[in-house]
Design brief:
heterodimer; A: alpha/beta; D-Maltodextrin-Binding Protein, domain 2; 14 helices; B: mainly alpha; MetI-like fold; two-stranded antiparallel sheet; 15 helices; about 75% helix
C-alpha cells in the first residue's frame, strides 16, 4: 500500500470507458502535477481486465464485474484512502464499501459514478411505459423480433433479477450468487428470450441506430444512450422487478510505476466539479453528490440520473463478478463462477 | 554513357554470388522465410497451443497446462455445433452466389462488351475495394434497417426487407468478397483463345453448350482460386454477422466473445474453420484444379 505521497512521475496510463478521460479536465491535471495522461479506451469490462493484465497501465475505470476479478487476481492494489482527501462524506452512500471493490475490509476502489440498465422503449409502438421486463423475456411478447439485449455473460444477472421477482421458489437472493439450479433456470429464460430477440448489442452506436431506425422497440439500455438517440418517443423506465447497473471506480495496478500520479488523479477526479464533468460527459450519476448543488444545470443532471436517490439505486443490483463463494452469504452450496457464466452464455445464442 | 560504365565496372557482389550457389539461395529466401516461419507460423502456433491451456475459473487468468476440455466443449455444446454448421453453410452459399454472378459477368465483359463498357465494369467491380471493410458493412446495415433505404425504395411494391438475419449476412458477405471471385474469373475467360469459340460454333454448339463444355472446364482453376477467397474470408468473418445479422452467430462471433473471457476456448474453436479450409483445399486438390492454378 502507498504510505505517503512523493514526487510525481510525469505520466499516467489509464484504461477507461469512453468519455471518462477528456482534455477538458486532463489539461488542468497535467498542468497542476506534470503527469501526462495517456488514455486507452476499452469497450467492455472483459477487455479492461485483459488490458490491465498486460502491465502497461497504471489505473483503470473498472465496473464492479471487472473490479472483483482484478482484485482477486492480484492485478490491483489496496488503497490508502487518507491520501485521497476528496474521497469524503460527499461520496454517495450507496457507492461506498460495496462487495465488488472492498475485499476483507480493504478498499481497492475510488468511486467515479453509477448508472442503471434500464428498459428503453419506443413509445409510438408501446403506447406507454411497460411496467414489467416481461416484454423482453416472455414468448408472448408483442414485440417479437424487435427486442434487444446486452451482449455479455453478465447479462445472465438480468435474467436472475427477473426470476427473483417472478419465480420466488428458486430462492435467488442476489442475482450474482446463483447455484447450479438457479443458473440453469436463468439460462433457460435466456434461451427462451433468444427465440424472440432481434439483436444483441455490445456496441452502443449499433444499439442507438437500432432504436432510431425502428429495428428495435424494447430492450436494455442506459440513460445516456437514450439521450444520444435524441428522439422524443424513445424513453426509459425502471420496471417493477428492478434491474442491474454498473458502479464504476478507479483501481490502481499492483505493478504501477506511477503511483503518485495515480493517487493525484483519483483525488483530482473526486473533486465535485471534475467528478461532475465526467458524469455529465458520460451520462451517469456522479459519485460525488456535492456536485449536484453547484448549479441548476448540475441539479438537473443529478435528477435525471437519480444521483441522490438512494431509494432508486436500492432497486439496482450493481454488476459484480460471480464467484464460487456465494456473495449472498449462503454457506451450504457452491455458487457458479464467472467462468461458468461465460460457458453458459455461449450456449444461449445458438 | 551509363551502360558503358556499368559493363566496365567490376561487380564484386555479383561475382561473389555467382560462385556460391548456397549463399545465393540463402539471400534470396532469407526475408520471406523469416516472415513465414518467424512471424506467421510461430505466432499461429502460439495461438493454437493456448487451446490446451487452463483458465482460472475466477480470475479468467490463463496458465500453461495440458487438457482437452476446451476441445470437448467445442465439439459437444449444441450452440457451438449449430454455429459451426451455420457458418459453413453461409460461406458455401456466399461462394455459390459469387460464382453464379461472376461467370456470366466475366463472359460478357471478356467476349461481348465493347472496350469502354468492359473498362467501366472493371472499375465498377474493383471500386468497392477502395472503401473500408467496416464502412461497407455499416452501409449495408443502414440500407437494411427498418426505416432504411431498402424498405423505403421497395415500399411502393409492397416489399419489405427481411430485417437483420442470415440472408442479409449472406448478402453483405457476397458484396464484400465478390471482387475476389469476379477478377480471376474474368481474367481466365479473357485468356480463352477466340478460336475455341469459333470452333465450338463450327461444330454446331449453341451458346449454352459452349459455356458448359468449353468455357467452364477452362475456368475451373480460376473459380477454385476465387472460391478459396470467398469461402475462407466468409468463414472467418464476424463483423458482418454482428452488424447485419441481428442475433445471428458465426464462428468468429464466438471466438471474438471468448478472446477476452476464455482465450483457450477461442483457440480451440479457431481450429474448426482451419479444419474446414483444410478439407476444402483437399477436395479442391482432388479435382486437380490446384495444380493448374
Amino acid at each position: 500500500m502507498h504510505e505517503a505521497m512523493g514526487e510525481f512521475e510525469g505520466e499516467l496510463n489509464i484504461v477507461n470507458w469512453s468519455g471518462f478521460v477528456e482534455p477538458a479536465w486532463t489539461d488542468k491535471f497535467t498542468a497542476d502535477t506534470g503527469c501526462k495522461v495517456n488514455p486507452r479506451v476499452a469497450g467492455t469490462s472483459d477487455e479492461m481486465v485483459t488490458l490491465m493484465r498486460t502491465g502497461n497501465y497504471d489505473i483503470v475505470s473498472a465496473s464492479g464485474d471487472a473490479a472483483l476479478r482484478l482484485i482477486v487476481g492480484g492485478d490491483v492494489q489496496p488503497l490508502n484512502i487518507s491520501l485521497i482527501p476528496n474521497f469524503s462524506d460527499d461520496i454517495a452512500a450507496g457507492m461506498k464499501g460495496n462487495v465488488y471493490d472492498t475485499v476483507n475490509g480493504k478498499p481497492y476502489g475510488v468511486p467515479i459514478g453509477r448508472g442503471a440498465n434500464l428498459l428503453q422503449y419506443n413509445e409510438d409502438v408501446t403506447g406507454g411505459a411497460p411496467e414489467s421486463w416481461d416484454v423482453v423475456w416472455e414468448l408472448d411478447t408483442p414485440y417479437k423480433g424487435k427486442i434487444t439485449a446486452y451482449d455479455a455473460p453478465i447479462y445472465i444477472a438480468d435474467a436472475a433479477v427477473y426470476l427473483m421477482y417472478h419465480k420466488p421458489d428458486l430462492g435467488i437472493k442476489n442475482p450474482y450468487a446463483l447455484d447450479e439450479t438457479q443458473l440453469a433456470a436463468a439460462i433457460d429464460l435466456l434461451k427462451q428470450q433468444n427465440q424472440v430477440i432481434g439483436e444483441y448489442w455490445s456496441d452502443p452506436v449499433a444499439q442507438i441506430t437500432s432504436f432510431v431506425g425502428g429495428n428495435t422497440v424494447v430492450g436494455t439500455s442506459w440513460e445516456v444512450l437514450r439521450k444520444f438517440a435524441g428522439k422524443e418517443n424513445i424513453k426509459t423506465t425502471l420496471p417493477v422487478e428492478g434491474s442491474t447497473g454498473w458502479f464504476d471506480s478507479w483501481l490502481v495496478s499492483s505493478t504501477t510505476k506511477n503511483i503518485n500520479c495515480a493517487y493525484a488523479w483519483m483525488d483530482y477526479t473526486s473533486k465535485p466539479e471534475v467528478n461532475g464533468a465526467i458524469a455529465v460527459n458520460f451520462g451517469m450519476a456522479p459519485a460525488n453528490v456535492a456536485y449536484c448543488a453547484s448549479s441548476p444545470e448540475a441539479q438537473a443532471h443529478c435528477d435525471t440520473f437519480f444521483a441522490e436517490d438512494e431509494e432508486f439505486f436500492k432497486r439496482i443490483w450493481p454488476w459484480t463478478t460471480p464467484i464460487e463463494t456465494c456473495v449472498d452469504g449462503r454457506k451450504d452450496v457452491k455458487c457458479t463462477s464467472f467462468q461458468d457464466w461465460t460457458n453458459a452464455w455461449a450456449t444461449v445464442k445458438g | 554513357m551509363m551502360t558503358e560504365t556499368i559493363s566496365k565496372q567490376s561487380r564484386p557482389l555479383s561475382s561473389f554470388l555467382l560462385r556460391r550457389a548456397k549463399v545465393r539461395l540463402f539471400s534470396l529466401l532469407a526475408l520471406p522465410m523469416t516472415w513465414i516461419v518467424g512471424v506467421y507460423i510461430v505466432s499461429l502456433f502460439l495461438l493454437l497451443i493456448t487451446a490446451f491451456w487452463n483458465v482460472d475459473p475466477f480470475t479468467s487468468r490463463v496458465s500453461p497446462g495440458f487438457n482437452l476440455d476446451n476441445f470437448e466443449l467445442v465439439l459437444t455444446v449444441p450452440a457451438y455445433i449449430a454455429t459451426s454448421i451455420r457458418t459453413l453453410l453461409i460461406a458455401l452459399t456466399v461462394t455459390l452466389i459469387c460464382i453464379l454472378f461472376a461467370v456470366p459477368l466475366g463472359i460478357y465483359m471478356a467476349k461481348i462488351a465493347k472496350p469502354w463498357v468492359r473498362n467501366l465494369l472493371a472499375v465498377a467491380i474493383t471500386l468497392p475495394l477502395w472503401a473500408g471493410y467496416l464502412v461497407k458493412i455499416i452501409a449495408m446495415r443502414l440500407v437494411f434497417t427498418e426505416e432504411g433505404f431498402f424498405n423505403w425504395a421497395m415500399a411502393p411494391f409492397g416489399i419489405r426487407g427481411p430485417g437483420f438475419s442470415v440472408p442479409i449476412v449472406i448478402l453483405t458477405l457476397t458484396y464484400l468478397w465478390f471482387p475476389y471471385m469476379a477478377l480471376p474469373v474474368y481474367t481466365a475467360i479473357r485468356q480463352i483463345p477466340p478460336n475455341l469459340f469459333d470452333a465450338s460454333s463450327d461444330m454446331g454448339a449453341k451458346g449454352f453448350t459452349t459455356v458448359n463444355r468449353v468455357v467452364f472446364p477452362l475456368i475451373v482453376p480460376a473459380v477454385i482460386a476465387g472460391s478459396v477467397f470467398t469461402f475462407s474470408l466468409s468463414l472467418g468473418d464476424y463483423l458482418a454477422a454482428r452488424f447485419t445479422g441481428g442475433a445471428t452467430q458465426m464462428i468468429g462471433s464466438i471466438i471474438a466473445q471468448n478472446i477476452n473471457l476464455n482465450p483457450p476456448v477461442a483457440a480451440a474453436y479457431s481450429m474448426i474453420p482451419i479444419l474446414f479450409i483444410v478439407i476444402y483445399l483437399m477436395v479442391a486438390r482432388r479435382t486437380g484444379s490446384l495444380e493448374r492454378m
